[in-house]
Amino acid sequence: MDKLDEILNRNIPPWPSDQPTENDPEILLPAEEEYLCPICGGTGYLRQDVPVGHPNFGKLMPCQCRLREQENKRLQELRVISNLETMARYSFPKFVPEGYGLTEERRRNLRMAYDMAYNFANQPEGWLILLGGYGCGKTHLAAAIANQVISRGEPALFVVVPDLLDHLRTTYSPHSTVTYDQRFEEIRTASLLILDDLGAHSSTPWAQEKLFQLFNYRYNAQLPTVVTSNHELEEIDIRIRSRMVDPDLAQIIKILAPDFRQIGVAQGSSELSSLSLHADQTFESFSLREGELDTAKAENLKRAFERARNYSAHPHDWIVFTGTYGCGKTHLAAAIANEVSKRGEPALFVVVPDLLDHLRAAFNPNSLTPYDKRFDEVRRASLLVLDDLGTESATPWAEEKLYQLFNHRYNGRLPTIITMAKDIDLKPRLKSLFLDVGRCTTFEIMAPSYRGLPARGVAKARVPVRRVR
């Protein structure tokens, strides 16, 4: 009797593909269902020729044909989970690395993300983390990696994180054809795993634990992994984040491009923004009110003007203008935003009470924009102008949303312009952010309200003023 090792080392003849013809009557091929593996005789299993007492004595071992069948079945199940058939259009040739109407900085950033993804697809090693807002192209690049790897005949598993968790939950059903352990093992050991939309899942303790187990296994095994997320790294579970930021394993890039679906719409022209209503409020149209104000107030207004103009050239951190209503603070904030927009860079100008109304409306079931996307649009804005802080309804919900917004932009040091009346009493935790002079510059405008009043002394001599009793 031949030994099992000798049998397994034999080459299995290829599956017959040609059909007998009239010219070859002597060739008689069995039908497909009659084909028998020459190693196991069609049973699919073998017993090893080992002495009594050996751990494998009497045990059935799968034949090569059965192992191939199991591998093909496993790959087919992964293809079903991936659902990449619906994403076949996402490829590198169809990606536009120059973007549409982007600034030079954003074009370079998008090109870098493209190059990183393309190089990873050609040689999947380590982890690639793609961050960015909605529609910036990160999912396209992730799917393009999967499609290119599969086109070479190599396996890849692409799955949206909420769907992944759903696949795991369904294995607990009594009608499931696979156990939880089998499905989880298929996912965590995938040759290349691409996780799309990390952070979009329901943050239950069970979900957090499953994701940590998945990330931890792949981190320890150094398995090629691609992750995309709309969230900042600081918002991701610290146990997962600590593995994602390992410089020896992971490459991280944040894509700065805006939503490509807004092609044809001027950048920064969000439906939230009311900047178009302030188009006439520029630095050129701002009045320094010379001859109307006394020397101290005129000098103060001039300094505010210079601060605003300098900030518009290189927006960074926060600048806050306070003062009485009509003193010019909104004009200066709008002038900064208009100057930035003139350079082709996005700017979001919104009055705080209107912002809160937009956020509340996003909870409406008929809203076309979900709350998460709306709030994300504001907190990630490249340049955000918040006009009239303190005039909003001070409900606990409003206070919490504003704190979340300000805290995110404070931690990210995102350019933010704020206007508010000088007598506004901020809540302590919000006030603490404004008091950080390293990140926030506050300028109080001393000038009184200006509503086209004539200049002192000069204007009165030229334009007669009739007193109305």
Order of helix and strand elements from N to C terminus: HEEHHEHEHHEHEHEHEHEHHEHEHEH
**Reading side by side through the largest sheet, how are the strands ordered?**
4-5-6-3-7
Give the terminus-to-terminus CA distance.
123 Å
Largest sheet entry: 5 strands, parallel
Instruction: Please tell me what the overall shape is.
Output: elongated
Stretches where pLDDT is under 50 for at least 5 consecutive residues are: 15-20, 22-32, 264-268, 455-469
Mean pLDDT: 84
Describe the structure in brief.
The chain has about 475 residues and is an alpha/beta fold. Helices cover about 40% and strands about 10% of the residues. The protein has helices spanning about 5-10, 65-80, 105-120, 140-150, 160-170, 180-190, 205-220, 240-245, 295-315, 330-340, 350-360, 370-380, 395-410, 430-435, 460, and strands spanning about 45, 60, 125-130, 155-160, 195, 225-230, 250-255, 320, 350, 385-390, 415-420, 440-445.
Describe this structure in words.
This protein is an alpha/beta fold and 469 residues long. The protein has 15 helices and 12 strands. A 5-stranded parallel sheet has the order 4-5-6-3-7. Strands 9-10-11-8-12 form a 5-stranded parallel sheet. A two-stranded antiparallel sheet has the order 1-2. The relative contact order is 0.08. Residues 15-20, 22-32, 264-268 and 455-469 have low confidence and may be disordered.
